[in-house]
Amino acid sequence: MTREVSVTEGELRRIRLLASRGGRADVDKIPMERSSALALASLLADKGLVLVERRTRKVLRLTERGKDAVNRGLPEERLLDLLRTSGGSIPLSRVRESDLFSDKAELDAALGEARRAGWISFRKSDGETIVELVSAPERSPLGEALRSVASGVQEIPAEAASRLRARGLVEEDEIAEFTLALTPLGVEVAHGRVPVVMEVAKLNRELIESGAWRKVRLKAYDVTLPPPTVYPGKSHPYVQFLEEVREILIGMGFEEVKSPIVEAEFWNFDVLFQAQDHPAREVHDSYALAYPATAPVPPDPDLVERVRRTHEDGWITGSKGWGYKWSFETAMRLMLRSQTTSASARTLASRKDLPLKIFVIDRVFRPEALDKTHSMEFHQCEGVVLAEGLNVRHLLGYLKEFANKLGFEEVAFRPAYFPFTEPSVEAYVKHPEIGWIEIAGSGLFRPEVMIPLGYDYPKVQALAWGIGIGRLAMVRLGLDDIRDLHSQDLQFLREFPARW
Amino acid sequence: MVSVPVITVDYSDLCRLVGEEIPEDRLADLLARIKVSLEGEEDGELELEITADRLDLVTVEGLARALRGFLGKEVGLPNYEVFDSGWEVKVDPSVKAVRPYFVGALIEGIELDETALVAIMRAQEKLHQTLGRDRRKMSMGLHNADVLEPPITYAAEPSDSVRFVPLGETEEMTAAEMLRRTEKGREYAHLVGDGSVVPVLRDSEGGVLSVPPILNGELTRVTSSTRNIFLDVTGPDMRAISQALVLMATALAERGGRIGTVVISYPEGPIVTPDLSVSEMTVELDYVNSMMGLNLSAQDVVNLLEKARLGAEAKGNVIKVRIPAYRSDFLHPVDVVEEVAQSLGYDYLTPELPMHVTTFGKRHPVEKASALVRSLMIGLGYQEVLNYVMTSREVLFRRVNRPESPVVEVANPVTASYTVLRDSLLPGLIAFLSRNTGAPLPQRIFEVGDVVIPDETAETGARDERRLAAAVADSEVGFEDIQADLYALLRNLNVSFELRPAEHPSLLRGRTAEVLVDGVSAGVVGEVHPEVLELNKIKTPVAVFELSLERLEVIE
Q1: What ipTM, to 2 d.p.?
Q2: Which among B334, B353, B389 is the nearest to A447, CB-wise?
Q3: Per residue in B124-174, pLDDT tens?
Q4: Domains of chain A: residue spans and CATH
């Protein structure tokens, strides 16, 4: 009967070592760490090359008191030493006063042990108890036994062992001992009488280059064991979502544009026909700047003039205007962009290459205290389609297409009010769990916006929509705290799935 | 937010005014068509959010007026008969410096129960908040007209000479005392300057109606037995007060009152209020159809406008629209188009993509470069983080040992943590690491984002700059580690660069370098100074770099 045997080089070395020691050895005698030796033994046993015999053995171990007694002698030994240096007799009171014993219990033990052994006796003299040395060995047998344990000898008389235990100087411990014994197959392997296949743990360059991999067997791993945790480099989940939105809009033919964070009120409000006393322009709805406070470079004076007149009396737009005195200084005040529409306005002012489809994904700022549902800084996503012959139904068409591409099947529309669009529309989508959620405000730019920007309104129309994209991101990412979009928790980011 | 008024109305009162029980879900649908959203319902009261352009819907009477149109119960222009009350209000020149304008009306023959009284007070308060900007631009008062003897005088008087019993008080006091002692007095005292002179409304017998915009007098208190009401509206803005007067007068007319005009005698000459004259606007059918993408007939449009309580008449393809005085939101014929769309209902507008608009999508060059840089950093094993652009001087300067320098700063911060805009990404990354000292090492993070640099040559006094910053925290990490990643990044971006020894207040001298591209600094790389680590309670060394994508010339 032949049986294929596969061993690693290390295993073979150990088998030969065992064979050289008569085929049998304690695990402790194998020159490697005990735990590794045991693991090796178990592997060899699985292969039927060794038998592992387990025995338990009782051992004596010194207690803290025992260690102390080894250093200083047993209490009774200390007592005998005192007697010897005091001429063989000493008043008990002086024994008490000596600093040889840590407490009364130890003193009593010393007196009791020495007396029981017949080494000392007591007598009375003038009402005082005198301790006298009778005859005593140089060293006490129990002390000798204790010192042998300390020196590593385990074989001491059974009676001494039990007394040492009783006095709390030693304790008994149980240790497991393993003996490895070669099986007959192991012996055959050790002597090279059975063909073996060499087994290796890691495939390496040498094995491949030398072709030795052909002769070896790759050890099987337990592939179900979990590895150490690795954190890959990864994009931020919110950024990933914004990138997805960006891809959708680019796919729909939109071109991305930008505008400065520090913006003149002119571009954030005035061009968009928001009256200078409009509530949204009050201090609690946008961030005014302490520094810098005023835009150093005014916009095109012709545009400024057209905007002024449109606000004041409607200019040639066909509008009544707001009927107030427009202020250039107010328009030049700086603020933090409160809506991405400023980017759209700038683009409409500078680009005339129709048809034009643009989008913006950027941060806007509003004076809010940061909490679970409010943020002083959040992202908006905005799109504008600028072309001849556009109407409200086209606006709804883009909104529906965009919502569908974001994964929302059902879309509904409602009339709304925004200062710079007319008609204005709010778009809602149906989320399977949350229900209807508002995703976009939109509309056709008002003539008071379009005509000052130089467009042939109503022939040319601009469809515009804006999305609080952060809220949509929260829905998609399953977050209920807006602060998580800018999480400061590294583990949260590391453990957030890359595909949610 | 001021721009989105939320009002409370009594459900049964609304139904009573509409003249029909409307089930709540149907009501919500109807309201949505006039941009009103039903936010909630409690104890028979509805919470409604209306839009800033439709202040005529602030009153429950106005809401009912609009709903009757949609339900077809009453269409076209409401017809308010107006009579001459014979009352006069004399405006003394002394008010010019205090609260210059006054308008008023007399409402006769009204019957108000407690519910109606509450509704009117609520509407008045809501108008104060919205149109009146918390009474600054406009405030109004309602008075029991039967106790008054016209003519009424509107004049400014020393506040310690005006004696009256303020509404809700039991004893007489001077206006000066009223400003100090009553709740409303303290709340609105700032609207009358130093309070030494206040505007006062008195009748011909000297009885005090009101000290606007603060408090009425107990003398003219309106109760459910009041039948005739004198309405006063004051403020510094003639347009706002006239609008408020029309809104309230027509609302009271919807409750059955008759509107009487009052002559207001200004030093410059008399005017008659309220002015309920209808304005006109013409709109072309083609314009309506082209904006909506529909093919309605002129008669369709007329019918739809009448449902919206407008007067409408078609002459060929031109529609003449008559707009009631309470609708101040018509600036341009486009506003008529919206009325048509709303009356029709947006559900009738089928979404459609315009086949004639062909364009090509494109990523912004800054975002293109950012995406590239981001992918390389991820390849190098870094986790992306996303900090706010807003931060504090504490985080931006003090916690990283940087000397303070001018940065963009807001004038109206809400909290001390967010007062300035970052001009560097590194302080944010260090703050991030300081919040994550317990997380497993190594910590490799990066951010791609905008910083804002004050720049007097920039159009708006500051410019955004797209940057990349990275940080590695580990039990052992140094310059050479981050430098290797920096080189890997820049080699892959095909950037020619060199390093030059440099100093940076947050970084260790001798282990800090500037990244030079064409001899110009494009960023910095180095080991964070242990002092900065201590300030941030970071227990491990940290190596960082920050680069400007513009300076690297990776933006097309």
Answers
A1: 0.91
A2: B334
A3: 999 999 899 899 999 999 999 999 999 999 999 999 999 999 999 999 999
A4: 5-61+174-218 (1.10.10.10), 64-171 (1.10.10), 238-495 (3.30.930.10)
